[in-house]
Structure formats: C-alpha cells, structure tokens
Write a structure and sequence with these properties.
The protein has 164 residues and is mainly α. It is built from 4 helices and 2 strands. It is 55% helix and 2% strand.
Amino acid sequence: MIKTYRPGAIGALLDEYEKAIEDFVKAIETIPDSTLPVITDPRTRDENCRSVQTILTHVVHSGYGYAVGIHNIKGYDMARPVKMTRDTIKEYIDDLTKVFLFTENVFAEIKEDELEQFDDALKIKTGWGQLYDIEQMMEHAIVHVLRHRRQIEKFKILMGELDE
C-alpha cells in the first residue's frame, strides 16, 4: 500500500497528528475496559493522569481544545465540547477519530501563510497562558498525544505487574 501525503506544511502537520493518534490507538486498543478506571498513579497531583481513563478523557478533551483554539483565531466563538468520561476503549477510539476529523475540518479554512505569526495579536492564548501561533499549537497537539502514549505504555507495564 502506498502512503499518500497531504501537501504543504498544513499537510505535514495533519499527517503527523494523524500518525500520532494512530500510534496512540495502537497503544490503547488492547487495554481491557475493566482496567480503565484503575488508579495506576496514586501519587500524581495531576487529576488527568491517575488512570488510563483519566488520561484518555484528557487527551480527547485537549484535542478538541487545540482545534477549537485554532478555529476561533479565525473570528469564531466556538466552545470546546464538554469533557466526557467513557467506559470503553472503543468509545475513546471513536472520540479520537472524531477529534482528528474535526481538526482536519478546521484546517480547511487555514492558509499556509497563516501558520506562523509573529504578531501576538494573531496568536492563540492557551489555557496555560502561553501564546502560540497555529503551527506551534499543532506541534504541541502532536507532542501531547505522543507524551500520553508513552505514559499509557508505562501504565500497561505497571498494570501487568499488578496482575501477577
């Protein structure tokens, strides 16, 4: 099978985001639904990182947040969808697919020359207070998925040790 690449810088960002999500899905698809709510990291102060379920909920919600932020820089006033906790891996995989499709649709209105901005007034203010242009926001979105994939992989090792 020949891989088709989307054109340009926008295409590269979307291709890499899609690949990051595909790899994330591969990491979670074999996790039993019954283990989703199991607290795997009781010491973390981050409520989004205590269990596989909290991580997946966070990744989906954040994915919408990045895309909505990019969408709203075009003058829209869309709210990010409400954070939803799911009970099955299949539901989370469906949500991740929807996040990517939503992001892809957002980029239908973005032009290549809008990716990088040096004027702070044309940047997106993140929920954690930084200013990102569209390219930086998508780079963050990609790495966010990668970092949580790594975290899930570590959780899977810990969960395997708990079963023994």
